[in-house]
Amino acid sequence: MADHDEKFWDRLDDINAGMLGLKSDARFIPMSHYAERDERALWFITAKGTDLVDALQGGAQEGIHLVSDGGEGLYARVSGRLALSDDRAKLDELWNAVASSWFEDGKQDPDVQLVRMDLTDAEVWATGGKVSFLYEIAKSKVTGSKPDMGEHYTLSF
């Protein structure tokens, strides 16, 4: 299991974004995530006044972050508790050129809002990536066998 955990975090570190939403709502939006392996958390930088932030004003809620990246060979449904955060030190740590593109006044912009997701579990499909996928498809055509598409497992955090 530790191998699965390590593989999940290593691949997630190399992926920039996914689709984030509340478990109670079918609407998901693209969001960049920032993985905090030691704390078993994901961080998101978003704007005040969004539907997600408005929904979290009343307190933490169950959320889902969907990640799909064929190049890294990771497909995952990550679940956890989403909550608003005013941690300025964390914002300083996470701030980057991508985040600054969305906020006119940089990290001092009054619309900047951090959201933290404390992970509870993840359902993961880990493949060998694009090259491995093509190889497995070609091999299946030659041998008549089903392609090996990697591992499917669940992690609890």
TrEMBL record:
Domain General stress protein FMN-binding split barrel, first and last residues per copy: 3-148
PANTHER family, A to Z: PROTEIN BLI-3
Protein name as it appears in the record: Pyridoxamine 5'-phosphate oxidase family protein
InterPro entries cross-referenced by the UniProt entry: Split_barrel_FMN-bd, Stress-Dev_Protein, YdaG_split_barrel_FMN-bd
